[in-house]
């Protein structure tokens, strides 16, 4: 008498196993859910190329003062404090950046400098990049050196290729990502 | 003949799975969804407290409801634990402490990946997400967070990126490209989606019908245009198309008043340019502060459900994140952390209230990882961080029990330089202003006598932190509704994807 029960149980489990393997365990309603096309009105828009930071202005609206460093308002300038900005003789903007909101770890930061001659014409650009993404992963890309979180970080954005003599600079912060 | 062993193993494996499921359900209190005939699961609401470990839940309970009380999430009938480890990039070697990106990819796509990865595997291969699959199959979908909506947790359901930092508004190598061992950036991938700012992806892929959170600064006017072209209502303004870059002045955050006016349809509401405001801070601001215009997570959850319920005959999938539990735990700010746990738990109530009425809704509540080694110590005691030396390790009565290094109990005293007083208790009169102080944060509970103040030595809830980073501890999971018994188990975070997929589609995802 016990054998039929055993067999039935085994058969049921086997059927369940087979159903599980073949995907036949779905209820009719569930199966009905599976392969519907994208619902009306939900079509996605085409994805354009990755958006780039805006190019610096070709000319400044007014000739700059020699050594002047301006801050260009942007998406993150209300989240940072830039101090000690100076344009050195070697054509590099330096200073200190401290983040004033969302103050947990800084994953990525980019600061750009556009260099202008005494007449306010663009003569070159430079940038300062900071990345500590993935630093928590064993064997990952750990960030060495000063950290941008907390008291902030000193930066230097040297001009890459100048086409004239840099007399002033405009600094922008196109990238800021906090943990 | 060769196939027989496989069949036998399969039967055994299924038998084991059934037994495990039966045990888990038996350990749960009886619940609506698992009694008698099983109702069809139409909706899945997945709520997670970012960084919310087991002790966060306990501390929240004791702070707001007392030792005998329960948070709303603790009232759910099924309870289990989730293991959260990640893997190292380019391998399947475990990385024992996850970040939010890897964890969110695990439950969104069912695959372990490297820390910082969004919707890609350890080898940078794009993975389908549960929300994408639900959307494609005709479910209504929603994604809510108190973080920037481009942050890791919401992003992993509706975008794909090599690095979680690639949030926008613009691409940059530093934010979007991983570094190689020599410190140079990897080559750009052939699939440019993986380095397209997450904001751009979200605005165009139509994966979520309802999108509520912070992060307005990540978006630009062309994103608003793309959303509106797909039929979304966009609350507030993404900025001035005439400007090369948007600013705090050019963009307008959505408000609770905007939210209240929405009655139906696809909606995007970004209520802060960065993360939404911590509830404790919001409560302390003057009435006319702009942050006061932000809705609570519970209000966002209720509105999302009202917009999604009935939108599709199939049902809906909604993810809700209480993100600031983690962010305030990183900062070791216990007062704000507790407030965010309460705000998250209120959102859990909003979800379960709906589920109880609906009868076809599975509610899952969990976390992505623990943050900061949050702990409850006995009133009047101190932690290693406050001590001049670690606890004693010496048995002079039976020297065979001595270990190395031997330590005397006399050195295990509070170091006044490291523990100059209780900190971070609201209303603290004895709190130290010393920023280097490792003292505990103390809070009164409903069990304390009247007059006991937060931040005093008399308050009974003493909270401490191990660090300012994530830990590898398992996190709790609670569930309610049809199919909730499956979550009453000790499980890996990738299994959450498999179980939710089964709940929605009735069978196992391919390859799982």
UniProtKB/TrEMBL annotation, chain A:
Keywords: Signal. Residues 1-29 form the signal peptide. Residues 26-72, 131-151 are annotated as: Disordered. The keyword Signal applies. It comes from the Bacteria. This is Lipoprotein. It comes from Streptomyces acidicola.
Automatic annotation (TrEMBL), chain B:
Zn(2+) binds at residues 50, 326, 330, 368-369, 470. The active site is at residue 100. Mg(2+) binds at residues 50, 151, 153, 321. It comes from the Bacteria. Residues 395-412 have a biased composition (Polar residues). Belongs to the alkaline phosphatase family. Keywords: Hydrolase, Magnesium, Metal-binding, Phosphoprotein, Signal, Zinc. InterPro entries: Alkaline_phosphatase (IPR001952), Alkaline_phosphatase_AS (IPR018299), Alkaline_phosphatase_core_sf (IPR017850). This is Alkaline phosphatase. Binds 1 Mg(2+) ion. Binds 2 Zn(2+) ions. It comes from Streptomyces acidicola.
């Amino acid at each position: 008498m016990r054998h039929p029960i055993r067999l039935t149980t085994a058969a049921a489990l086997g059927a369940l196993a087979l159903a599980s393997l073949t995907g036949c365990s779905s209820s009719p309603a569930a199966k009905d859910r599976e392969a519907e096309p994208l619902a009306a009105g939900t079509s996605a828009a085409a994805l354009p190329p990755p958006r780039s930071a805006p190019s610096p202005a070709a000319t400044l609206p007014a000739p700059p003062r020699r050594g002047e460093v301006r801050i260009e308002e942007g998406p993150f300038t209300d989240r940072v404090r830039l101090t000690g900005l100076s344009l050195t003789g070697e054509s590099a903007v330096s200073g200190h950046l401290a983040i004033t909101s969302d103050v947990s770890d800084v994953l990525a930061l980019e600061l750009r400098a556009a260099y202008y001659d005494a007449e306010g014409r663009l003569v070159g650009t430079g940038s300062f990049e900071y990345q500590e993404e993935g630093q928590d992963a064993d064997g990952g890309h750990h960030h060495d050196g000063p950290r941008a979180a907390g008291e902030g970080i000193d930066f230097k954005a040297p001009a890459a290729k100048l086409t004239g003599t840099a007399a002033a600079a405009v600094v922008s912060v196109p990238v800021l990502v906090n943990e | 003949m060769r196939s027989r062993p496989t069949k036998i193993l399969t039967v055994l494996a299924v038998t084991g799975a059934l037994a495990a499921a039966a045990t888990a359900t038996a350990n749960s209190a009886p619940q609506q969804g698992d009694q008698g005939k099983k109702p069809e699961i139409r909706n899945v609401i997945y709520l997670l407290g970012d960084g919310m470990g087991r002790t966060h839940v306990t501390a929240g309970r004791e702070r707001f409801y007392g030792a005998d009380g329960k948070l709303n999430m603790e009232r759910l009938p099924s309870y289990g634990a989730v293991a959260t480890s990640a893997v190292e990039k380019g391998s399947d070697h475990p990385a024992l402490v996850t970040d939010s990106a890897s964890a969110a990819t695990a439950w969104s796509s069912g695959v372990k990946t490297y820390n910082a990865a969004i919707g890609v595997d350890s080898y940078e291969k794009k993975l389908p997400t549960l929300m994408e699959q639900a959307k494609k199959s005709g479910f209504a979908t929603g994604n809510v967070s108190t973080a920037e909506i481009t942050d890791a947790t919401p992003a992993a359901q509706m975008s794909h990126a090599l690095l979680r930092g690639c949030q926008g508004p613009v691409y940059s190598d530093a934010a979007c490209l991983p570094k190689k061992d020599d410190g140079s950036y990897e080559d750009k991938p052939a699939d440019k989606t993986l380095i397209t700012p997450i904001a751009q992806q979200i605005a165009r892929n139509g994966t979520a019908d309802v999108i509520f959170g912070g992060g307005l600064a990540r978006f630009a006017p062309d994103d608003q245009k793309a959303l509106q072209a797909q039929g979304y209502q966009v609350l507030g303004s993404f900025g001035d198309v005439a400007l090369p870059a948007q600013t705090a002045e050019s963009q307008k955050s959505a408000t609770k008043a905007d939210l209240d006016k929405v009655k139906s349809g696809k909606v995007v509401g970004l209520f802060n340019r960065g993360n939404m405001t911590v509830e404790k801070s919001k409560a302390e601001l003057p009435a006319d502060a702009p942050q006061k215009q932000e809705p609570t997570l519970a209000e966002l959850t209720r509105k999302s459900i009202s917009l999604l319920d009935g939108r599709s005959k199939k049902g809906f999938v909604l993810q809700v994140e209480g993100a600031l539990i983690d962010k305030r735990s990183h900062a070791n700010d216990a007062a704000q952390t507790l407030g965010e746990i309460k705000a998250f738990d209120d959102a859990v109530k909003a979800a379960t209230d709906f589920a109880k009425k609906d009868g076809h809704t599975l509610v899952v509540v969990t976390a992505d990882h623990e943050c900061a080694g949050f702990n409850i110590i006995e009133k009047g005691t101190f932690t290693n961080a406050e001590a001049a030396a670690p606890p004693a390790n010496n048995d002079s009565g039976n020297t065979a029990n001595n270990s190395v290094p031997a330590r005397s109990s006399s050195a295990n005293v509070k170091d006044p330089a490291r523990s100059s007083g209780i900190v971070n208790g609201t209303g603290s009169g004895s709190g130290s202003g010393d920023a280097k102080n490792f003292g505990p944060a103390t809070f009164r509970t409903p069990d304390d006598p009247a007059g006991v103040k937060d931040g005093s030595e008399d308050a009974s809830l003493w909270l401490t932190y191990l660090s300012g980073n994530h830990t590898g501890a398992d996190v709790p999971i609670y569930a309610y509704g049809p199919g909730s018994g499956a979550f009453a188990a000790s499980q890996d975070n990738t299994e959450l994807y498999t179980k939710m997929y089964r709940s929605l589609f009735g069978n196992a995802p391919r390859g799982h």
